[in-house]
Amino acid sequence: MRPNLRLKGEYDYGLMLIAAAIITMGLFVIYSAAYQKYILSGANLSLRQLNSAMIGIAVAVILFRIGYQRMIDFGYHLFAINIVLLVLVLVIGDVRYGARRWIEIGSFAFQPSEFAKITFVFALAKYLGDNRDEIQNPRALIIPLAMAVVPMLLIFKEPDLGTALIFVPILFTMLLIAGARLKHILIILGAGLVMAPFVWLFLKDYQRARLLVFLNPNADPLGAGYTIIQSKIAIGSGGLFGKGWLAGTQNQLNFLPERHTDFIFSVVGEEWGFIGGAILLWLYYRFIEKGTIIAQTTSDIYGKTLAYGIVTIFAVHIIVNIGMVCGLMPVVGLPLPFMSYGGSFLIMSLACVGLLENIKHKRTVF
Hints:
By secondary structure, the protein is mainly α. It has one domain. It has 16 helices and five strands.
């Protein structure tokens, strides 16, 4: 039985303020990154992002009021619904940029793959909490592995390699926190690495090209390596203080593709310089630190695994996105939390903030 939780009345205002600061920073950067599009078509992407932020805040408040315990009780149901949506995407989804990732309902479009991250965390937290006494048994790891593989295969089919792979660190982190043996996890990881070469056979041509140009971007400077080359030029040209808002040449002259989404950190580096990039990294560090403290200080296994899963989502996105923009990791298409343009991911991110606040607000009292 799950222990009764008593309302502590505690909030982490710093967590909310940091998220708000990064979102505000992101609105300015998105406006600059999409400024030429705004001039040509009148599409104000920063205003759309602000609307998504308002929806995300409303969702965060609702989840906070509902409580993470009740959400975990319906974890399997939420995850199953999300799996159905991922199947529907492959059947009736809208194709953009060569990928089938969006479901359109009238003028509203969303990506089920973004919400699959958090519904997976809910379902896994429920399983680990319900089976915490058996989790050291290797047989108990079969179901968590299956729970991760199903959305990974569906999302990989879209195709979206980056989002599919993020389930791996989430799974292993939550298993470790729940008490699974490290040697069992290492065996699973080793088996996955052995099978990795076979995955190459199922990759799309552009995905193979991205992995190859990671090793040598100059091998295809006008093709697959173009974006990462332009990204590094943009970041390097920003210097210490940057060129100024709306003054980045790589940005405003349209040399840098996807600069309002996956490569938005390049715009930060070019226009806000090393100082602006360092401030953003410090904000992310403080956000992850506060999320980790919330996870560490709750004694409820359900809340603890849920919090660590959420923190892992943010940490992986931040590390991989900035790493790929700087040329330190392959380009896999993961957005930067609270910064990159995209309603689905921003709403999911703010929902996670509401859940972290709820976990801190309700803690086990003995």
